Amino acid sequence: MTEHDDWMRHSGASALRHFAPGVASTLDELVAIAPAPLVTAARRVGAQTLSLPALPTPESAADTLTGAPLEFAEQFCVDVSMIDDSQRAALASALGPDTGRFVQVLYVADWVPRARAGLDALFTAPQPAWSAPAEWDTTGEPWPLIQRTLVEVARVRELDPVTTEVVRLYQARQHNCRLCKSLRNRTAMLAGGGEDLYDEIDDFRASSLSARHKAALEFTDALVWQPGRLDPEVVADVRTHFSPAEAVELVIDMMRNACNKIAVSTGTDGANVADGIEVYDVNPDGSVDFGLALPR
Predict the structure, then answer these.
(1) 3-292 adopts what CATH topology?
(2) φ and ψ at 259, to 5 degrees?
(3) CA distance linking residue 270 with residue 211, whole number of Å
(4) Which of 90, 139, 199, 231 makes a 20 to 30 Å CA pair with 2?
(5) DSSP-derived secondary structure for the chain
(6) In whole angstroms, what is the distance from residue 101 CA to residue 266 CA?
(7) pLDDT confidence tier of residue 60, bands split at 50, 70 and 90
(8) Is 70 exceeded by the pLDDT of residue 219?
(9) Rounded to the nearest 10 degrees, what angle do helices 232-241 and 211-225 cross at?
């Protein structure tokens, strides 16, 4: 079986299950969490804003976003960096104690469809498709399962660390996450990642970055800004420069990185350092260590 065969024999859903089964399992559980009627509305708004199919919702659930929650949800999906304190205050006034849970639900409604769209573009078999939950969890909380999903993504180790860090930093800058912009991965540093390379990320199309990094960033840019209109040439470049397993990790890494939208949208994304950078690393079990020493 060749890599070309893998692109053709897998659908997006089966590729995720094949190359990242732990992530596929936790995402199934996450999609099945519907803790409040607002889930339906959030998923509908996310789909309409992104021009993507909506995540499934319980048949009995029905709600509509209006006013501050609608404005917040649309801005969250379109450009989270533009959410300001007045929008945060208006959302908190409208939703009260449900505010935090609503923002977590928004992240799921926003980025799981993007990840599915990216995988469906890369892997062309029509079946199996994404399935709806057999049972709904109407009492569960999204955050513990979001955390489990992020850990499962971090355990996948197909991509080289420099590419992983290049993509993470690009999303950090697109979302304007102060914490994420301040972080630097120690393993990527040891593998050759440095500020000279990272300085070229923002204007990557005119940069001297490798074709592999440019392909990854072009695909990342598309999923961040125009997930409903993925250019076939951009998708083809990913297939050229990455293996199927690497491409799956590329997509789910983007989803993990985009969790910073929760912090950015709520204004809780402050960096741990006043100046300079903070060194971190991801352990094989998916846990993260912060405040590490610079590699010698």
Answers:
(1) AhpD-like (1.20.1290)
(2) -60, -20
(3) 33
(4) 231
(5) --HHHHHHH--HHHHHHHH-HHHHHHHHHHHHB--STHHHHHHHHHHHHHTSPPPP--TT------HHHHHHHHHHHHHGGG--HHHHHHHHHHHGGGHHHHHHHHHHHHHHHHHHHHHHHH-----S-PPPPSS-BSS--HHHHHHHHHHHHHH---S-HHHHHHHHHHHHHHHT-HHHHHEEEHHHHHTT--HHHHTTSTTGGGS---HHHHHHHHHHHHHHH-TTS--HHHHHHHHHHS-HHHHHHHHHHHHHHTTHHHHHHHT----SSSSS-EEEEE-TTS-EEEEEPPP-
(6) 12
(7) low
(8) yes
(9) 140
Mean pLDDT of 230-241: 97
How many Å apart are CA 66 and CA 230, to the nearest integer? 30
Each residue of 164-213: pLDDT tens digit?
A: 999 999 999 999 999 999 999 999 999 999 999 999 999 999 999 999 99
Q: How many CB atoms lie within 10 A of CB 120?
A: 21
Query: Which whole-number Å values give the CA distances from 232 to 145, 163, 217, 218, in the listed order?
Result: 33, 21, 15, 12
Answer yes or no: are the C-beta atoms of 156 and 45 closer than 8 Å. no
pLDDT class for 157, splitting at 50, 70, 90? Answer: very high
- Within 8 A by CB and 6+ apart from 96, the residues are none
User: Bridge-partner residues for 137, per DSSP?
Assistant: 33
CA distance 83 to 75: 7
pTM over 0.85: yes
